Amino acid sequence: MTALEIVNAVSTGAKTAEQITRESLAKIAELNPKINALVEVFEQDALAQAKAVDSKKARGEKLGPLAGVPVAIKDNILYKGHKATCCSKMLENYVASYTATVVEKLLASDAV
Hints:
By secondary structure, the protein is mainly α. It contains 4 helices and no strands. The chain has one domain (3-108). Helix 2 packs antiparallel against helix 3 (43-58).
């Protein structure tokens, strides 16, 4: 599904953000061991955000422009409490102490 298709599916109730997130996480679990594209998968955070988007919809609140769209964050962009290694041995154990503005904006837009 494209981002627009996901937003439309979540907005109309054809799919929930949680369903889309679980589908995406399953695909990541299948492919990432082969392609090693993701350093860390924020599964619990993603599911919590998806449930928050679904709750927002259930309350009749306006959804953000990226409602339910799963996103990946490069590991040189900080997300508090998560690794930010920049794919560097020197930073392999660095954990972000704050969340970058771009991540805050994605989450505020209801991205997952």
